[in-house]
Design goal:
Layout (H helix, E strand, L loop, with lengths): L1 E8 L8 E3 L1 E4 L12 E4 L30 E5 L4 E5 L5 E4 L3 H15 L7 E4 L14 E5 H11 L12 E4 L13 E4 L2 E10 L17 H9 L3 E10 L1 E4 L3 E4 L1
Parallel strand pairs: 9-10
Antiparallel strand pairs: 1-2, 1-10, 1-15, 3-14, 4-8, 5-6, 6-7, 9-13, 11-12, 11-15, 12-13
Protein backbone atom coordinates (compact mmCIF):
# COMPACT_ATOMS: atom_id res chain seq x y z
CA UNK A 1 0.00 0.00 0.00
CA UNK A 2 1.29 3.46 -0.94
CA UNK A 3 0.53 6.22 1.56
CA UNK A 4 1.36 9.85 2.27
CA UNK A 5 4.23 9.89 4.76
CA UNK A 6 4.41 13.69 5.06
CA UNK A 7 3.21 16.93 3.49
CA UNK A 8 5.12 20.19 3.04
CA UNK A 9 4.80 23.67 1.63
CA UNK A 10 7.55 26.24 1.04
CA UNK A 11 5.93 29.69 1.32
CA UNK A 12 9.05 31.67 0.38
CA UNK A 13 11.11 30.16 -2.41
CA UNK A 14 14.43 28.77 -1.20
CA UNK A 15 13.61 28.99 2.50
CA UNK A 16 12.26 26.58 5.14
CA UNK A 17 9.82 23.75 4.60
CA UNK A 18 6.64 23.80 6.66
CA UNK A 19 5.10 20.46 7.59
CA UNK A 20 1.33 20.01 7.25
CA UNK A 21 -1.11 17.40 8.51
CA UNK A 22 -3.64 18.10 5.75
CA UNK A 23 -3.90 20.06 2.52
CA UNK A 24 -6.72 21.02 0.17
CA UNK A 25 -5.89 20.32 -3.47
CA UNK A 26 -7.57 22.35 -6.20
CA UNK A 27 -7.81 21.43 -9.89
CA UNK A 28 -4.93 22.76 -12.03
CA UNK A 29 -3.47 24.49 -8.98
CA UNK A 30 -0.28 24.16 -6.97
CA UNK A 31 -0.27 23.66 -3.20
CA UNK A 32 -1.88 26.58 -1.38
CA UNK A 33 0.66 29.03 0.08
CA UNK A 34 3.51 27.23 -1.69
CA UNK A 35 6.27 29.44 -3.15
CA UNK A 36 3.95 32.44 -3.16
CA UNK A 37 6.90 34.75 -2.44
CA UNK A 38 10.42 34.91 -3.83
CA UNK A 39 13.38 37.19 -3.13
CA UNK A 40 14.73 38.75 -6.31
CA UNK A 41 18.55 38.72 -6.37
CA UNK A 42 19.26 41.63 -8.66
CA UNK A 43 16.94 42.62 -11.53
CA UNK A 44 14.97 39.57 -12.74
CA UNK A 45 12.51 41.07 -15.20
CA UNK A 46 9.60 39.72 -13.17
CA UNK A 47 6.48 41.86 -13.64
CA UNK A 48 3.83 41.45 -10.91
CA UNK A 49 1.23 42.88 -13.31
CA UNK A 50 1.96 40.14 -15.84
CA UNK A 51 3.54 37.33 -13.79
CA UNK A 52 5.43 34.68 -15.72
CA UNK A 53 7.92 31.92 -15.01
CA UNK A 54 11.51 32.97 -14.34
CA UNK A 55 14.47 30.61 -13.74
CA UNK A 56 15.25 29.96 -10.09
CA UNK A 57 18.70 31.55 -10.44
CA UNK A 58 16.96 34.94 -10.71
CA UNK A 59 16.00 34.60 -7.03
CA UNK A 60 17.65 33.60 -3.79
CA UNK A 61 17.70 29.80 -3.98
CA UNK A 62 19.55 26.90 -2.41
CA UNK A 63 21.08 25.96 -5.75
CA UNK A 64 23.11 29.19 -5.61
CA UNK A 65 22.83 30.28 -1.98
CA UNK A 66 23.40 27.42 0.46
CA UNK A 67 23.49 29.81 3.41
CA UNK A 68 19.69 30.16 3.21
CA UNK A 69 19.50 26.85 5.09
CA UNK A 70 21.04 28.58 8.11
CA UNK A 71 17.75 30.43 8.65
CA UNK A 72 14.64 28.85 10.17
CA UNK A 73 11.57 30.56 8.75
CA UNK A 74 7.81 30.36 9.33
CA UNK A 75 4.91 31.94 7.45
CA UNK A 76 1.39 32.70 8.70
CA UNK A 77 -1.02 32.74 5.73
CA UNK A 78 -3.70 34.55 7.75
CA UNK A 79 -1.49 37.55 8.58
CA UNK A 80 1.18 37.21 5.84
CA UNK A 81 3.79 37.55 8.58
CA UNK A 82 7.10 35.82 7.81
CA UNK A 83 9.33 35.15 10.81
CA UNK A 84 13.03 34.28 10.74
CA UNK A 85 15.27 32.78 13.41
CA UNK A 86 19.04 32.70 13.03
CA UNK A 87 21.59 35.40 12.22
CA UNK A 88 21.00 37.46 15.33
CA UNK A 89 17.74 38.39 16.99
CA UNK A 90 14.46 36.91 15.71
CA UNK A 91 12.92 38.88 12.85
CA UNK A 92 9.32 39.11 11.66
CA UNK A 93 7.56 41.21 9.03
CA UNK A 94 4.28 41.36 7.10
CA UNK A 95 5.19 40.52 3.50
CA UNK A 96 1.92 42.01 2.22
CA UNK A 97 2.87 45.44 3.57
CA UNK A 98 5.44 47.71 1.82
CA UNK A 99 7.11 48.54 5.13
CA UNK A 100 7.35 44.84 6.00
CA UNK A 101 8.86 44.05 2.60
CA UNK A 102 11.41 46.84 3.00
CA UNK A 103 12.40 45.54 6.44
CA UNK A 104 12.75 42.01 5.05
CA UNK A 105 14.89 43.22 2.17
CA UNK A 106 17.16 45.08 4.60
CA UNK A 107 17.52 42.03 6.87
CA UNK A 108 18.37 39.70 3.97
CA UNK A 109 20.69 42.23 2.35
CA UNK A 110 22.84 42.22 5.46
CA UNK A 111 22.61 38.44 5.78
CA UNK A 112 23.53 37.65 2.16
CA UNK A 113 26.50 40.02 1.99
CA UNK A 114 28.64 39.49 -1.10
CA UNK A 115 26.34 36.80 -2.51
CA UNK A 116 23.98 39.54 -3.63
CA UNK A 117 24.05 40.23 -7.37
CA UNK A 118 22.10 43.44 -6.91
CA UNK A 119 19.26 44.82 -4.79
CA UNK A 120 17.11 42.22 -3.03
CA UNK A 121 13.36 42.59 -3.52
CA UNK A 122 10.39 40.65 -2.12
CA UNK A 123 8.21 39.55 -5.04
CA UNK A 124 4.67 38.20 -5.29
CA UNK A 125 1.67 38.36 -7.60
CA UNK A 126 -1.93 37.21 -7.11
CA UNK A 127 -2.33 33.59 -8.14
CA UNK A 128 1.35 33.18 -9.05
CA UNK A 129 3.76 30.61 -7.61
CA UNK A 130 7.53 30.75 -8.06
CA UNK A 131 7.89 27.07 -8.93
CA UNK A 132 10.78 25.57 -10.88
CA UNK A 133 8.67 24.39 -13.82
CA UNK A 134 6.32 27.28 -14.50
CA UNK A 135 3.22 25.09 -14.33
CA UNK A 136 0.75 24.57 -11.46
CA UNK A 137 2.08 21.14 -10.53
CA UNK A 138 2.31 19.53 -7.12
CA UNK A 139 5.46 17.53 -6.43
CA UNK A 140 6.01 14.04 -5.04
CA UNK A 141 9.09 12.28 -3.71
CA UNK A 142 9.33 8.52 -3.18
CA UNK A 143 11.05 7.81 0.13
CA UNK A 144 12.32 4.48 -1.20
CA UNK A 145 14.11 6.38 -3.96
CA UNK A 146 15.63 8.70 -1.36
CA UNK A 147 16.93 5.61 0.46
CA UNK A 148 18.38 4.38 -2.84
CA UNK A 149 20.10 7.75 -3.32
CA UNK A 150 21.60 7.39 0.16
CA UNK A 151 23.08 4.05 -0.85
CA UNK A 152 24.54 5.57 -4.02
CA UNK A 153 26.20 8.50 -2.21
CA UNK A 154 27.18 6.44 0.83
CA UNK A 155 25.64 8.82 3.38
CA UNK A 156 22.25 9.57 4.97
CA UNK A 157 19.99 11.75 2.81
CA UNK A 158 17.25 13.91 4.33
CA UNK A 159 14.14 13.85 2.08
CA UNK A 160 13.82 17.60 2.64
CA UNK A 161 16.75 18.06 0.26
CA UNK A 162 14.23 17.36 -2.52
CA UNK A 163 11.67 19.98 -1.35
CA UNK A 164 8.61 18.02 -2.45
CA UNK A 165 5.03 18.70 -1.41
CA UNK A 166 4.14 15.04 -0.84
CA UNK A 167 6.47 12.32 0.45
CA UNK A 168 5.28 8.80 -0.33
CA UNK A 169 5.83 5.49 1.48
CA UNK A 170 5.21 2.07 -0.05
CA UNK A 171 6.60 2.35 -3.58
CA UNK A 172 9.63 0.48 -4.84
CA UNK A 173 12.77 2.53 -5.46
CA UNK A 174 12.40 4.63 -8.63
CA UNK A 175 8.87 3.33 -9.24
CA UNK A 176 7.60 6.92 -9.34
CA UNK A 177 9.57 7.54 -12.53
CA UNK A 178 7.37 4.98 -14.33
CA UNK A 179 4.12 6.76 -13.44
CA UNK A 180 4.20 9.58 -16.02
CA UNK A 181 0.83 9.55 -17.80
CA UNK A 182 -0.86 7.51 -15.05
CA UNK A 183 -3.68 8.77 -12.82
CA UNK A 184 -4.25 8.12 -9.14
CA UNK A 185 -6.63 8.98 -6.35
CA UNK A 186 -5.14 10.36 -3.16
CA UNK A 187 -7.41 11.22 -0.28
CA UNK A 188 -10.51 12.63 -1.99
CA UNK A 189 -8.48 14.14 -4.85
CA UNK A 190 -7.39 12.80 -8.22
CA UNK A 191 -4.06 13.55 -9.92
CA UNK A 192 -2.34 12.82 -13.22
CA UNK A 193 1.41 12.31 -13.08
CA UNK A 194 2.91 14.66 -15.63
CA UNK A 195 6.69 14.89 -15.51
CA UNK A 196 9.77 13.41 -13.86
CA UNK A 197 11.70 15.79 -11.62
CA UNK A 198 15.26 16.48 -12.69
CA UNK A 199 17.37 17.33 -9.67
CA UNK A 200 19.66 20.34 -9.37
CA UNK A 201 22.49 21.37 -7.06
CA UNK A 202 20.00 22.45 -4.38
CA UNK A 203 19.89 18.79 -3.31
CA UNK A 204 23.60 18.94 -2.45
CA UNK A 205 22.82 21.33 0.44
CA UNK A 206 22.27 19.83 3.88
CA UNK A 207 19.02 21.42 5.20
CA UNK A 208 20.30 21.22 8.79
CA UNK A 209 23.86 22.51 8.41
CA UNK A 210 23.73 24.55 5.14
CA UNK A 211 26.87 22.66 4.00
CA UNK A 212 27.24 21.42 0.42
CA UNK A 213 28.19 17.97 1.65
CA UNK A 214 26.89 15.64 -1.11
CA UNK A 215 26.91 15.43 -4.91
CA UNK A 216 23.45 14.04 -5.63
CA UNK A 217 22.77 15.06 -9.28
CA UNK A 218 26.28 14.08 -10.38
CA UNK A 219 25.99 10.72 -8.56
CA UNK A 220 22.61 10.01 -10.16
CA UNK A 221 24.00 10.81 -13.59
CA UNK A 222 27.06 8.58 -13.11
CA UNK A 223 25.06 5.71 -11.61
CA UNK A 224 21.74 5.82 -13.48
CA UNK A 225 22.44 7.94 -16.58
CA UNK A 226 19.83 10.50 -15.50
CA UNK A 227 19.33 13.04 -12.69
CA UNK A 228 15.66 12.29 -11.95
CA UNK A 229 14.20 11.64 -8.51
CA UNK A 230 10.55 12.40 -7.85
CA UNK A 231 7.64 13.35 -10.07
CA UNK A 232 5.25 16.23 -10.74
CA UNK A 233 1.48 15.89 -11.06
CA UNK A 234 -1.54 17.88 -12.18
CA UNK A 235 -4.52 17.97 -9.86
CA UNK A 236 -7.49 17.01 -12.06
CA UNK A 237 -10.11 16.66 -9.29
CA UNK A 238 -9.81 18.63 -6.07
CA UNK A 239 -10.15 17.29 -2.57
CA UNK A 240 -8.58 17.06 0.85
CA UNK A 241 -5.50 14.95 1.50
CA UNK A 242 -3.77 14.12 4.75
CA UNK A 243 -0.85 12.23 6.20
CA UNK A 244 -1.62 8.51 6.10
CA UNK A 245 -4.00 8.72 3.12
CA UNK A 246 -3.58 6.01 0.52
CA UNK A 247 -2.54 6.66 -3.07
CA UNK A 248 -4.33 4.30 -5.47
CA UNK A 249 -3.22 4.06 -9.08
CA UNK A 250 -6.01 4.01 -11.65
Amino acid sequence: MTTIASLYRYPVKGFSAEALDQAELRPRHRFDHDRVYAIENGPSGFDPAAPAYKPKAKFLCLMKNARLAELETRFDPATQVWSIEGHGAPFAADLSDPAGRAATEAFLTEFMGEERRGPLKVLSAPGHAFTDVGKPYISFINLASVAAVAELVGAPVDPLRFRANINLDGLDPWQELELVGREATIGSARVRFAKRTQRCAATNVNPDTAARDLEIPATLLRSLDHMDCGIYADVIEGGEIGVGDELRLI
